[in-house]
Amino acid sequence: MIVRINQFDPPRAEPSAGWSATGLSGPIKYTWPGETHAFELLILDRDEQQHALSESFRRKQLRQLIPDVMEALRESGEEIVARLDGPLAEGEIVGAFEHIVEPDGAGRYAFSSASRLEESSPAPTVSVRLHLTNPRLTMLCNDMNIGLERMVRLRLLSIPSGFVSAFLDTNETNDERWGDLIRESSIYLSTVRGLQAIHLLTRRFDPIETRTRLMQRLVGSTTPRTAGK
């Protein structure tokens, strides 16, 4: 199969991502400046031999693609931080709690409070924020108990180490610290609802450098070849 890279206008990122317009999984309150470049990465529905690829197979490939994308665009000295927002239910965000602490007890994390006082009430939405190494990000993305294909939104930033604590402490999407966090990041990644695609936004790299970095990384991995328009 082929990884397709499409460039699009940054203001279209949130409306086309399919997530709620409000709440923890909704848009972060930040106006991207004019020099921002936005890209959509998706797996085409047929491979090079025109064999049909199932949706479940393509979603699994996108899960495997995410750590490679972050590694391709992460600058030296930057840290990977993740925000997952979704219902506090099995098969959704509950699986993310398996990744907050390493076996030796290490790990930096934060998560929002939640309550469900009536059995008939819907599962509350919870935000889980993590500081991850690339291997830990790979483990998280490959964990099928986390509902990335369903109701869990994954957002990743690559930021200087001095901003990790502020990121972990930022629960609400309208927190004023988001401006500094995104300005300092080299890349912002978000999943599209249903894991149909991945959105990337960056002020750091122009389209040529972005595609070059991605293609160099993907060609060197097990991920199939890329194409763009």
Explain this structure:
It is a single chain. The protein is an alpha+beta fold and 229 residues long. The protein is 25% helix and 24% strand. It has six helices and nine strands, in the order E-H-E-H-E-E-E-H-E-H-H-E-E-H-E. A nine-stranded mixed sheet has the order 4-5-3-6-7-8-2-1-9, sandwiched between helices. A hairpin with a 6-residue loop joins strand 7 and strand 8. Helix 2 (55-73) crosses helix 6.
Summarize the structure.
This protein has 229 residues and is of the alpha+beta class. It is built from six helices and nine strands; from the N terminus they run βαβαβββαβααββαβ. It has a nine-stranded mixed beta sheet, sandwiched between helices.
What secondary-structure arrangement, pairings included, does this model have?
Elements: E1 3-8, H1 13-17, E2 37-43, H2 55-73, E3 78-87, E4 109-111, E5 125-132, H3 134-141, E6 153-160, H4 164-169, H5 178-184, E7 187-191, E8 198-202, H6 207-219, E9 226-228
Parallel strand pairs: 1-9
Antiparallel strand pairs: 1-2, 2-8, 3-5, 3-6, 4-5, 6-7, 7-8
